[in-house]
Amino acid sequence: MDKNISFTLKVWRQRGPKEKGQFVSYPMTDIPTDTSFLEMLDILNEQLINKGEEPIVFDHDCREGICGMCSLYINGHAHGPATGATTCQLYMRRFKDGDVITVEPWRSAGFPIIRDLMVDRSAYDKIMQAGGYTSVNTGGVPDANSIPISKEKADLAMDAASCIGCGACVAACKNGSAMLFVSAKVSQLALLPQGQVEAARRAKAMIAKMDELGFGNCTNTRACEAECPKCVSISNIARLNREFICAKLKD
Amino acid sequence: MAKKIDSKIPEGPLAEKWTNYKAHQKLVNPANKRKLDIIIVGSGLAGASAAATLGDLGFKVKCFCIQDSPRRAHSIAAQGGINAAKNYQNDGDSVYRLFYDTIKGGDYRSREANVYRLAEVSNNIIDQCVAQGVPFAREYGGTLANRSFGGAQVSRTFYARGQTGQQLLLGAYSALSRQVKLGNVELFTRCEMLDVVLIKDENGENRARGIIYRDLVTGEIKRCSAHAVVIGTGGYGNAYFLSTNAMGSNGSAAIQCYRKGAWFANPAFAQIHPTCIPVHGDKQSKLTLMSESLRNDGRIWVPKKLEDAKALQAGTLNPNDIPDEDRDFYLERRYPAFGNLVPRDVASRAAKERCDKGFGVNNTGLAVFLDFKYAIQRLGKDVVADKYGNLFDMYQEITDVNPYENPMMIFPAIHYTMGGIWVDYELQTSIKGLFAIGECNFSDHGANRLGASALMQGLADGYFVLPYTIQNYLSDQIQVPRFSTDLPEFKAAEDGVKEQIEKIMNIKGKRSVDSIHKELGHIMWEYVGMGRTKESLETALKKLEEVEKTFWSDLRVPGQADTLNVELEKALRLRDFIEVGKLMAYDGLNREESCGGHFREEYQTPEGEALRQDDKFSYVACWEYQGAGKAPELLKEPLNYEYIKVQTRNYKN
Amino acid sequence: MWLIDSSIGRKVVMSVTGSALIFFLAFHGAMNFVALISEDGYNAICEFLGANWYALVGTIGLAALIAIHFIYAFILEVRNVRAVGGLKRYSRKERPAGVEWAAQNMLVLGIIVILGLVLHLTDFWSKMQFQEIMGSTATVEGLGQVSPTDGAALIGYFFGKTHIAILYLVWLAAIWFHLSHGFWSAMQTLGWNNAKWLCRWQVIGKIVVTIIIAMFALVVIGFWCKAHCC
Q: What pTM was computed for the model?
């Protein structure tokens, strides 16, 4: 049987993007360890509402680690101390009785805070719009089996494509670089013949947009990869670099 | 019952209906497309694919989603795969067979013409997705791999690891992103539709001409106009509070259309997925699905002896200590032919039956074992880890139990809703200019959906059906200029929305939204759940009235309405879930038969199987809103099976 | 110009200049190592390089490499700080498993390296090539007039002093950390990497860098020992 724990929650509260925020401490008592981290926040919010206060705002949706919505920086780690897991897949049994748990939003100029722990990640959409696609219209495409693709390539593309666009890479990167996110999409499409056609154009367009939006410069610290809930590898960044440099040298 | 339902099924033999339709439908020329606006609410597989396709045809599309990005839509969580009748495996698949399996899987409660069209376009979907760079699983030879799924005898499911929904959605999202860049689609993220605006045309007929929405960040109520409105907002499973749906998944857009006069069809048909992680406490917020693929190798069992079950419930017995001869592999016992791979509704009901008899295996008595001991013995741990490693890790993270050493515990949970807004063959609702696509319409799955068919339907509607059929509607709209949002109809709708919000904000009671939602969920699961009776459904209706009363008298929404307010968002959705709940109960009460996801305990065979009443209920039950506090009116669209013989589903032999 | 206005371009500049500097260090280290074997041999090398045109061109090129590497490092840092919204970011930050300490502290290490370089230039270069260019000779306290090509004497003199020897070892350690990340990072930035080569480059990098730094460190330790033990 799971036991209950008590701890202090230090949560970042901020009314709006321009307003000053601060940490607020909430004592939490008798939380069952089989509660998920977000359910623990639900419990706290329920208590706040019952006291007539406004609940803590945080992004979350699927609660099974695939939508990429949840985005908490817990105890110095993007998505908390577990590896290969999103915030919603984090359970309270990871914490101990008497802990002080610090919860912060993603912090990056590219992701301005909306309120409390909720940030604006529309920059990722803009990068995708810059070139994260193959330029095909609906219909008029060849039969799915007409171009064979090696299993190895398809698997590598799938590894890259498993990115959920949560923004943990930017949050974890000391430089606030979005290279892992961009490289995952560029890699996926560059590995497949369908995407290879416009690979050079795509790499240039997506990098230009990423730079324009004020994301930092990658210095290969590997923090992104270590904190990525889907374990997307930085070998994708190498591939992106390759695609980009080759494209520029050809120009 | 004066209203005659016209489902606009085209003439001709089944296999030629769609071809004939396309050949004779009206189209809009490219220059005119630019003059026509289309609102698409929802950005899941159906919404995103429709927005992308209509965008590349040249229409001006406005796409709304409640999340921060279209990529978050809950289609992303679909694990298993997508069906298509490609017959790449040369195992005898065909469009007809996919059509037949889908109709049969749906327990003969769906339209033949619609399902046939779905099977027909399924192949185009795979081609389209591959062209978009969706990394489907491949064989060493470079061709696409397939796997088999419940309810089929061929391997026709295409997949991308356990993340097929994600990959397909990202493909559609990519295509959508491209259209945004090209300026054909405008995105409205973190915006929630709160009403549909109808304007009478010169013949006095209502047409959908726009929506009222709330900007979830600023709290502003805004108006948006268009020549047509499409909703693709998914299902209403969250009426049960605990479901496999995302926290934000809601039935509000559909209910708003229903309140404006669109018929709601077959609301009682809700799918209960057999392999979810059981409920563990009252603080739980959602149920996690374990992929159906686990049933390929796992064996489902409960103890044969009641005293063993009692000991398991008390936590005094280790399941590994129960010898094989004392284990009841009830699916293999009852359904020798399909065994652990029976369709979802059958597997779910069988689990409930065992637990109701007291054989449940966890502390709540609401769980059965899914055991991989045998698979590990047969294949070795490495092979099992290779196939299901991710799922096992997820299970261990959630439950703290190692599934390699102990049997998993699973229990059914609400997963998908087959019912939804009624649409005709053109996917148009009973309101002109209002279309519904994907899970939020009722069309293709009848009373039960087969695995890997939801993705197929969402994309079929969005890529290949709606972009044709909507033109048949829009072709006579080219002379209609863009609408001003200053029209009185917009003002009236906006005022209505504001009034509702104000009313909710002013209740100032004591109960949080979640606490009332949990109460609703409890009633739904208890009385409108897996096994329903006349009494339980009548009780449900009574209790739902009480919940509604509690909602309007004791709800507390902190904060202000004119700014970001998550509790207000949830309150508005809860208001609509209560309406959904009532609809489900009305429909369940009316449908005095058991079929697919709808099981009325009064109607079962002596062996406990579902008993359909084809002579009385072979119809689509369409519910028409009659005003607040009034019972909805039932309209019937008869289902005529011209091409296949209606049979009793049999998964025994 | 993509080498200036794109993030990858800027990193390519860092990568190329960094790699060139590693190349230079390898030469420098090999030359130094000669001093351990034969002081005359080392002085012959000093004489050979001296202030000849090729050595001067090399020196200017080297200075340019260092300057570019240094300036770009600061440009990147400024941009990166701006990208994370200022110097104060998270109240609690933990280094995730798999992230090298050096990788997150390249700028600090770089600054230590530059400070060491200033020391090094004052100690040696200003008394050797610089004097040769100026056509004069330097006077070192305790050593008197030193010929610009008598590197061995300078080495012996400076490394004989314990505090200087320690400073040099600290400096070398900083360079080792800087390069242990810098080496594979350069390959990664140029795109010469994949999942398999990532580990290989890291191991190769560590070996190469350790050899280079060991050559320098042995000279320091060797001459300190000569001064104190022999």
A: 0.95
